[in-house]
Write a structure and sequence with these properties.
CATH class: Mainly Alpha
Helix content: over 70%
Number of strands: 2
Largest sheet: 2 strands, antiparallel
Order of helices and strands: HHHHHHHHHHHHEHHHHHHE
Strand order of the largest sheet: 1-2
Shape: globular
CATH topology: Amino acid/polyamine transporter I
CATH architecture: Up-down Bundle
Strand content: under 5%
Number of domains: 1
C-alpha cells in the first residue's frame, strides 16, 4: 500500500512568518539606502529645511494610505503575489501579466543591481578614502552581496526571515545612532539651522514634485509583505498590524533622522554632501565615523534580502496561474522554497551589476511602479463596488483609497508631462508584454518540435533542481 505523506513531508510553502518577521520584512525593505541618499534631493527641490521636513511627513502619510489599501487587498485575496494577484482578481489577466512582465524585465533586476552596488560602495570606499575605490572591487563585492541573498533565499524561508530580522535591528540601530546625537544637540539649544526653516523664496512649484519623488523613493517597499500572504501566520490579523506598526515607525524615524541632520549641518553643507549619513557621522560621531558606512551597507543588504524574498513569490504565483512557464511554480522537495523563481533573477542582476547600465532603467521602473500602484488601488475600488459582499476582514475607509488612487494617477501624469522621453520609453517597454501575452498565454501556440525541446529541458531542470509542484493548496 502507498504510504501517505506526513505534514512535514508534503511539498508546499509553509506559514512560517509571524508578526515580528512580518514587521521586519516591511521595515527592512523600506529602510534601505533611501534615507541615507534622498535627504539631499528632498532639500534641493523643496527649497528649505522646514518644507523638506513637511515633505518627509507627507510622503510617510501617503505611503501609509497605500499600505492600508494593500492591507485590505491582502486580507480580501488570500493568495501570495501582491500586485499581480490583485490585478488578476480585479482587472483581469492582461494587466496582471503586464505587471509580471515589467517586474522581471527591468524593475526588479535594475533596483536589485542599484542596491547591490550601493552595498559595494559603502563597504569598499572607506577602505580607500580619500582615494577613489577600484571599480572592479566594488563590482565584485556587489556580486557577492546578491549571491549571499540568493543563497539564503534558496536555503530556507526560516533562515531568510531570521536574516531579515537581524539586519532590520542593525539598520534601526544605525538610525538610532543618528537620531540620539541630533536630539541631544537640539535639547542643548543647537537649533540655529532650523530657526528660519520655512523660507519659501527658493521654492518653485515645478521642483516640489521632485522633492516628493525623492521622499517616496525612500519609503518604497511598504507593499513587500503582500507578496508572501500564503506564508504569513494568521494573515487577517498580522498583515494589517505589521503594515500599520511598520509605517508609523518608519515615518517617525525618517522625520527624526532629518531633524538630526539639520542640527549638525547647514543646508549648504547637506547639499554638498554625496553621503549625508557619513558627513553627519564625521561631525557628530567622530569615534564611530567608520562604523556608519558598515551599518549603511548592512541596511542595503537588508533591503535587498526583503525585496528579493517578496518579488520571487510574484513569479511563483504567475507561473502557478499559467502565465509563466510551470517550472517556476515548483518548490524544492526538502527546502520548501520556490527555488527556480529565486534563481531566475540572479543572472540578469549580475549582468546589470557588471555593465552598470541600471540608472535609466530605474527611471523607467519608477513610472511603471506608480502606474501599477494606480491600477491596483483602482481595481480595489472597482471590486468593492462590483462585489460589496465579498469578505473583507480589514476594510480601509473609502476616502483613503480614493485619495491614494488620485495622487498616484497625478504622479503618473506629472511624469508624462515633466519627462515625456523616459516615460514614453517606459510605456513602450511595458507594452511589449501585450504581444507576448497573446502569443504565449492567451493562445499558446508552439511548433511540435519546439514543444518537445521545451518539455525535455523542463523535465531535466526539474530533476536537476529537485523541485516539484505544490502538493496542497495554501490559499
Amino acid at each position: 500500500m502507498k504510504k501517505e505523506k506526513t505534514e512535514d513531508e508534503v511539498v508546499h510553502l509553509r506559514r512560517e512568518i509571524s508578526l515580528l518577521p512580518a514587521v521586519c520584512f516591511i521595515i527592512g525593505t523600506v529602510v534601505g539606502s533611501g534615507i541615507f541618499i534622498a535627504p539631499k534631493g528632498v532639500l534641493m527641490n523643496s527649497g528649505s529645511m522646514g518644507l523638506s521636513l513637511l515633505v518627509w511627513a507627507l510622503c510617510g502619510v501617503l505611503s501609509m494610505f497605500g499600505a492600508l489599501c494593500y492591507a485590505e487587498l491582502g486580507t480580501s485575496f488570500t493568495k501570495s503575489g501582491g500586485q499581480y494577484t490583485y490585478l488578476l482578481e480585479t482587472l483581469g489577466p492582461l494587466p496582471a501579466f503586464l505587471r509580471l512582465w515589467v517586474e522581471f524585465l527591468f524593475i526588479r533586476p535594475s533596483s536589485a543591481s542599484y542596491v547591490s552596488l550601493a552595498f559595494g560602495r559603502y563597504v569598499v570606499e572607506p577602505l580607500f578614502a580619500p582615494c577613489a575605490a577600484p571599480t572592479l572591487l566594488v563590482t565584485l563585492v556587489s556580486i557577492l552581496a546578491i549571491t549571499f541573498v540568493v543563497a539564503v533565499n534558496c536555503w530556507s524561508v526560516n533562515m531568510t526571515s531570521r536574516t531579515q530580522v537581524t539586519l532590520t535591528f542593525i539598520k534601526m540601530f544605525a538610525l538610532v545612532l543618528i537620531v540620539v546625537p541630533g536630539v541631544i544637540a537640539l535639547v542643548k539649544g543647537q537649533s540655529e539651522n532650523l530657526q528660519n526653516g520655512f523660507e519659501v523664496e527658493s521654492l518653485t512649484l515645478d521642483k516640489l514634485p521632485l522633492a516628493f519623488y525623492n521622499g517616496l523613493f525612500a519609503y518604497a517597499g511598504w507593499a513587500n509583505l503582500n507578496f508572501v500572504t500564503e506564508e504569513v501566520i494568521n494573515p487577517n490579523r498580522n498583515i494589517p498590524l505589521a503594515i500599520i506598526f511598520s509605517m508609523v515607525t518608519v515615518t517617525v524615524f525618517y522625520v527624526l533622522v532629518n531633524v538630526a541632520y539639520y542640527t549638525m549641518m547647514t543646508p549648504a553643507e547637506l547639499l554638498m554632501s554625496d553621503a549625508v549619513a557619513v558627513t553627519f557621522a564625521n561631525r557628530a560621531l567622530q569615534g564611530l565615523a567608520l562604523v556608519i558606512p558598515v551599518l549603511v551597507a548592512l541596511s542595503c543588504l537588508g533591503g535587498l534580502n526583503g525585496s528579493f524574498f517578496g518579488s520571487t513569490r510574484m513569479l511563483f504565483v504567475g507561473a502557478r496561474e499559467g502565465q509563466w512557464p510551470p517550472l517556476f511554480s515548483m518548490i524544492h522537495i526538502r527546502r520548501h522554497t520556490p527555488l527556480p523563481a529565486v534563481l531566475l533573477q540572479y543572472p540578469l542582476v549580475v549582468l546589470m551589476i557588471i555593465t552598470g547600465e541600471i540608472y535609466e532603467l530605474i527611471t523607467f521602473g519608477s513610472f511603471a511602479g506608480w502606474f501599477f500602484y494606480s491600477l491596483t488601488t483602482l481595481g480595489m475600488l472597482i471590486h468593492r463596488y462590483r462585489f460589496p459582499h465579498h469578505p473583507r476582514p480589514f476594510k480601509v475607509p473609502l476616502a483613503i483609497g480614493l485619495s491614494f488612487t488620485v495622487v498616484c494617477f497625478f504622479i503618473v501624469g506629472l511624469s508624462m508631462y515633466s519627462d515625456p522621453w523616459n516615460t514614453g520609453k517606459s510605456c513602450v517597454l511595458t507594452l511589449t508584454g501585450v504581444p507576448v501575452y497573446f502569443l504565449t498565454v492567451y493562445r499558446f501556440q508552439l511548433p511540435k518540435r519546439l514543444k518537445c525541446i521545451y518539455d525535455y529541458c523542463s523535465i531535466h531542470l526539474q530533476l536537476f533542481l529537485e523541485v516539484t509542484e505544490q502538493e496542497v493548496q495554501t490559499y
